[in-house]
Amino acid sequence: MDTEKVYGTCKHCKQIRIIPESELEKIRETLIDGQEIQQDALDILATLNCDCEDAKREQHIVEIVLSTKENINMLFQDEFPAEAELLCEIVEFMVTGKISKVSLQLRHNTKATMTRNNVGEIKIQKVVTDKNELLS
Predict the structure, then answer these.
(1) How many other C-beta atoms can be found within 10 angstroms of the C-beta atom of residue 10?
(2) How many other β-carbons are positioned within 10 Å of the β-carbon of residue 116?
(3) If DSSP states are collapsed to H, E and C, what string results for 65-134?
(4) Which among 29, 31, 60, 99 counts the fewest CB atoms within 10 Å?
(5) Radius of gyration of the chain from Cα atoms?
(6) What gap in Å lies between CA 62 and CA 42, rounded to an integer?
(7) Please, which residues have CB within 8 angstroms of residue 5's CB and are 6 or more apart in sequence?
């Protein structure tokens, strides 16, 4: 059976690209019954699969954002889910250079720090302070 080809347009170079069926399946899994795939979503997919310089730059940013959010969730999601969500919201500001450092003092003597270096890499730290004191 021959399936109909679906197209999207790169938002940078305006090149029209065929959207691979595997990408369409990922989108279909998120749709509510009867809902259609919007052209905006197809254009985003086209941009993420385009090889023009601006699209490559955007693809790199998306990779950093996804990787950073994954790292945040690995370090904080189980113990501090609300704080992990907050840090994930801040990631895009860090990737674009609008914020270079964020520090949160959490419960249980835990501190979360996220910093962006001049190369654009984002470092996430979870520091747990264990303090022992005795009074006589």
Answers:
(1) 22
(2) 22
(3) HHHHHHHHHHHHCCCCHHHHHHHHHHHHHHHCCCCCEEEEEECCCEEEEEEECCCCCEEEEEEECCCCCC
(4) 29
(5) 21
(6) 16
(7) 18
DSSP 34: T
pLDDT of residue 3: 67
Distances from the Cα of 74 to the Cα of 61, 64, 82, 105, 125, angstroms = 20, 15, 14, 18, 11
DSSP string, 7-49: EEE-TTT--EEEPPHHHHHHHHHHSPTTPPPPHHHHHHHHHHH
- For residue 17, what are the CA distances in angstroms to 33, 42, 118? 26, 9, 34
d(CA 5, CA 19): 7
One-letter amino acid for residue 9 of the chain: T
Distance (Å) of CA 25 to CA 1, 48, 85, 113, 118:
17, 16, 27, 37, 38
Instruction: Taking each helix axis as running N to C, give the angle between helix 39-49 and helix 21-30, from 0 to 180 degrees, rounded to the nearest 10.
Output: 140
Structure tokens at 24: 């369409």
Question: Model-level pTM?
Answer: 0.74
